[in-house]
């Protein structure tokens, strides 16, 4: 995982593209952020609406149905949770949280903090996501800071699409394209489905976990950055492997990945409330409610 970083002193030595536990150190090459965008019509991607967590990156997000007076949601990775990484098969809903997020403006200036009231949803099963409900509405955030949320796309991302991975933690934007999709991505105990593979230019490192992956043609969030293969190992923590439909395993050292987010809006209803039984919602459910 693009591991969460432990404290600020660790940032000099930590860093690598892979699963982000708060354990161990990594030896990734320094990130060379490219901000060259694609040659066709694109929306300029900046830091407005992104946040820095204590150990990861994230963003203030809205669903297409979200209203301005709804409680704002912050999205990051499941493996960035302050309570530790969820186990394989574990799903967390409605867990109280008072986590703070540092809100950034378009040039990565720090505007202030917003606070969570709870973890609305988090898992590392099939995907790697956490969605925090905050104590502020979208309208309050815009009024106080002039910041609008990023919107989650509702269409499956497209191969070849130009993307920007926007890290609020590092205040760095990585630009590349979607190289393709991985039916099954395995890392340690965790398995993710239909993951996004980046082209090699996106050399994400520790602390970039949870960064929104923005489609530069639409300006909407297509995925959430979460991991990469650091050392060329096979299916170990920080060294995810690709498994195709026939069970063939491929290892791509130095290549990084994200988890799609287009299905998430179907799981949130009026008032930005999580409803895992809503029509079309395919997010994993907590064990007690599975049928």
Residues in β-strands, percent? 35-45%
The CATH topology of the largest domain turns out to be Thrombin, subunit H
Largest sheet: 6 strands, antiparallel, barrel
Taking Cα atoms only, what radius of gyration do you get, to the nearest Å?
Answer: 17 Å
Order of helices and strands: EEEEEEEHEEEEEEEEEEE
Average pLDDT value?
89
Intertermini distance: 30 Å
CATH second-level architecture of the largest domain = Beta Barrel
Low-confidence blocks of residues: 7-40
The DSSP helix count reads 1
What is the number of independent domains?
Answer: 2
Overall shape: globular
How would you portray this structure in words?
- The chain has one helix at residues 138-145, and strands at residues 50-52, 57-62, 71-76, 91-96, 100-104, 110-123, 129-137, 150-151, 162-167, 172-187, 190-198, 212-215, 221-228, 241-243, 249-250, 256-260, 268-269, 273-274.
- By secondary structure, the protein is mostly beta strands.
- It is globular and about 50 Å long.
- The protein has 1 helix and 18 strands.
- The strands form 3 sheets. The chain has a 6-stranded antiparallel β-barrel with strand order 1-2-3-7-6-5. The protein has a 6-stranded antiparallel beta barrel with strand order 9-10-11-16-13-12.
- The chain has 2 domains: 9-46 and 153-260, Trypsin-like serine proteases (Thrombin, subunit H, Beta Barrel), CATH 2.40.10; 50-151, Thrombin, subunit H, CATH 2.40.10.
- 3% of the residues lie in helices and 37% in strands.
- The protein starts with 49 loop residues before the first strand and ends in a 17-residue tail after the last strand.
- Residues 7-40 have low confidence and may be disordered.
- The longest helix is centred in the middle third of the chain and has 8 residues, at 138-145.
